[in-house]
Amino acid sequence: MNPQFLLSKLKLLTLTIFTLVLSYGVQASHPSLVITQSDVLEMRKAVIEQGSFATAYGKLKAKVDLQMALPIEVPVPKDGGGGYTHERHKKNYQLMYDAGILFQLNQDKTYADYVRDMLLAYVQLYPTLDLHPARKVKSQNPGKLFWQSLNEAVWLVHTIQAYDLVYGALSAQDIDSIETKLLKPVALFLSQGQPSTFNKVHNHGTWATAGVGMAGYVMDEPEWVEKALYDLEKSGKGGFLRQLDELFSPQGYYNEGPYYQRYALLPFVTFAKAIDNNDPQRKIFEYRDGILLKAIDTTIQLSYDGLFFPINDAIKSKGIDTIELVHGVALAYSLTEDPGYLDIARHQDHIILSGDGLKVAQALDKGLAEPYQFESVAFGDGSDGKQGALVIMRSQLAGDQALLFKPAAQGLGHGHFDKLTWQFYDQGKEIVSDYGAARFLNVEAKFGGRYLPENESYAKQTVAHNTVVVDETSHFNGDVEVGNLNAPTLNYFDTNQFGTIANGDISSAYPGVKLERTLALINLAELEKTIVLDLFDVRASAEHQLDLPLHYLGQLIGTNFELSVNTEQLSALGSNNGYQHLWLKGRGQPEQGLAKVSWLNENGRFYTHTSLVKGNEEFLFTQIGANDPYFNLRNEQGFIRRVKDKKQHQFISILEPHGEYNPGKEYTLEAESKLTGLVHGEQGDLTLIKITMAGMPYLIVVNQSADASTQHSFQYQDKSLSVNGRLAVYALNNF
C-alpha cells in the first residue's frame, strides 16, 4: 500500500481522535474541578510516604470506612436546620465528597461504588420531592432536600465534586440516570427555578452560582457556566463575577462581616479554582486586582485568638479553623508560598486532601512556617471601599490586645443597627463584648436552629451594642433598607509608636443628629500598659435622651459611686427596641469628676471604665433576660450612661486593664484602678487629654484637623510641643 496514503490516513485518524477529545474534553479529563489529574498523581505518591498528608489520608479513610460499613440512608426530607433528615443529607454530601477523594487516591473501586449507590438513591428520591415541608412560610428560597435552597446549593457544590471524582468508574447507564434525574434537575432548580436567589448579590447567590457553574463544567454545559458567571440573562447584573465586584471592598472585606465572609469563602475559592483549572484564560485569580487572595487574607485578619470578630449575625464560636478558611488558606499558600499562611494552617491542624492541601502539608513537614503578622488596619467597606470601614487596632505592649471599631456599612439583611460601636479583647478573652446573633445554630429544639425572634427584638437593636441610642430608638429606626443606603464616614485612621486611633461619624442614623466617635488604643510605654480612649460627641438640632451602653463580660467588682439596687423585684428598662429585654438591676448618679466601674474577666485581669462626668449622667446597670419566656438570651451584664434633654453632649471615658487575680495560687495584684486624673481640653483642632496613671502624668494629643499630613505645633504649660499624624503621647515627667 502507498506509504503516502497510509500517512494521510494516520493523520486523518489522529485528527479525528483529537477532535473527539476536544468535543468530549470534560468527559475525558475527570477529575477537573478543584482536584485535577495532575494533582491526583502527586497525591498518590504522598499517601504512601511518611508525612502529614499521609496521616490526614489515614484519618479520613478510617472515618469514611466506619460510615461505609453502615447502610446508606437517604431519608425523605422532613426537618429544618439541625433536625435528623437535615443533618443526614449534610453528612451524605460530605461522605460522597470524601469517598470520591479516597477513590482517586487509592483507586479502590469500593469507594466509587459507594458514591454511585448513594447518588442512585438520590436519583430515586429527588424526582418525588416537592418543596421542603419545613420551609418558612414567607421564605422566597425554599429547597427540596433542605428547608432553604442555600443548603441545597451547598449540597450541589459538594456532590458535583464527588461525581467528578468517581465519573471514570461509572457505567454509561448510571451516568445518564444520575445526570438526567438528579444533578441536572438540582442545577436547574437552583438557577432557572429560583432566579431571584441565583441572580442575587448575596452569599446565597454565591453558593448557587458556584454549584451550577461547577455542574456546567462537569456535565459539559458551557451555557450554565456563562450564566453562573454573568446571571441567567448573561447581563452581568448578577452572577459570580458581579458578586466579586460588589460583595468585597477593594481590600477584600466582605460586606456582611467576618462570620459571613468565612461562610461565603468556600464557594468563592472552590468555584474560582474550578474556573482556573477549566478556563485558565479567564485569569480568575487576577480578577479585580487579585480580590480573592485579598479576601482570604482579610478573613484571617478579622480574627482574634483564633475566633472571628462577632459583628452582625455572628455565631461567636466560629474561628479560623473553620473548614471554609482551611480551603482558603491552602489556596492562598499555593498561590503565594507565603510562609505566614503555614502558621495559620498549623493552627488549623487540618490538612485537606487536594493539590493545594498537599503543598501545605509538605511545607509544614519541612518546617517552613513563619509567624503570621496580624496588623492594625482599617478595611474599607462597600464595593468602592468608601462606605465606612471596619477598624482593627492591635497592641502587644501589655499582652495580645485588639480593639474593633465599627464605622462600617449596614451589612445587608445580616447587619445590626450599631453604627460606631466597639469591642475590646485582651489576653485571649472578649472584654467589652458584642452579643452577636441570637441563634442556636442547627439546634432544632431552639426555633428549628434558625435565628431566634430575639435576634430581631434584641441582638440587632442598637441598645444591644456599645454605641449611642437616641430616645430609646434604634439607628435608622430599625429599617434595614434605610440602613443599607447610609454608611458612616471614616474620617481618619492612623497607627504609630504611640498606638492606633480612628475617627468616624454619621448624620443619618437619626434625623437631625450627628454622631461622631474617636477611639484609640494607646501605649503607655513607661508603664508597659495600654489604655483605650473613647470620645463620643453627639450634636443635635433638638433635645434628646442619649444612652451610651457598654456591655462587658465578667463579674462586677465595684463602682466609686453609690448605687440604688433592685434586690427583690426586677422590671424591664423599656418596652421596645431591645430595652424590653434588659432587666434594670440598679442605678446611680455620680457627682462631677471621675465615675468608675470595675469588673473582673475570666482571664484573671481587672478592667476599670473611667468616665469624666459633670454630675448630670445617670448610670443604669442592666442584665439581659427580661421578656424572654423561652430563656433564649444569654444573661450578660452591662451599664448605660444616660443624659436627658440634651442637644449636645460628649461622652469621655478611658478603659484601663490592670492587675491579676489567681484563685489557684490565691493572690490578687493591683485590683484597684491606677487612673487618678483625667482632664479634657481643646486647643484649636487638637484635643488634649491629660491623665495621671500610677502617679505618672501623661498628655495625650489627638489631631482632629482636616489635614494631618504636616506637623502641628502647640503650646502646653509653657512648652512647645508637636504632633505628627493623628496621635501623640507625652510622659510629662520627662519634661
Q: Could you please describe the fold and organization of this structure?
A:
The structure is a single chain. This protein is α+β, with helices and mostly antiparallel strands and 735 residues long. Among the domains are: 247-374, Alpha/alpha barrel (Glycosyltransferase); 377-734, Beta-galactosidase, Chain A, domain 5 (Distorted Sandwich), CATH 2.70.98. The protein is 34% helix and 27% strand. It contains 19 helices and 28 strands. The strands form 6 sheets. Strands 8, 9, 10, 11, 12, 13, 14, 15, 16, 17, 18, 19 and 20 form a 13-stranded antiparallel sheet that branches. The longest helix is centred in the N-terminal third of the chain and has 23 residues, at 84-106.
Secondary structure blueprint with pairings:
Elements: H1 3-23, H2 25-28, H3 37-46, H4 52-68, H5 84-106, H6 109-125, H7 149-166, H8 172-190, H9 195-198, H10 203-218, H11 222-230, H12 240-246, H13 258-278, H14 287-301, E1 303-304, E2 307-308, H15 323-336, H16 339-348, H17 355-365, E3 377-380, E4 389-395, E5 401-406, E6 421-426, E7 429-432, H18 453-459, E8 469-470, H19 480-485, E9 489-496, E10 499-510, E11 513-524, E12 529-552, E13 555-559, E14 564-565, E15 571-572, E16 582-588, E17 593-600, E18 606-613, E19 618-624, E20 637-658, E21 660-662, E22 667-669, E23 675-683, E24 686-693, E25 696-703, E26 712-716, E27 719-723, E28 727-731
Antiparallel strand pairs: 1-2, 3-4, 4-5, 5-6, 6-7, 8-12, 9-10, 10-11, 11-12, 12-20, 13-17, 14-16, 15-16, 16-19, 17-18, 18-20, 19-20, 21-22, 23-24, 24-25, 25-28, 26-27
Helix pairs in contact: 4-5, 5-6, 5-7, 6-7, 6-8, 7-8, 7-10, 8-10, 10-11, 10-13, 13-14, 13-15, 14-15, 15-16, 15-17
Domain Heparinase II/III-like C-terminal: 382-588
Main location: periplasm
Domain Alginate lyase: 73-301
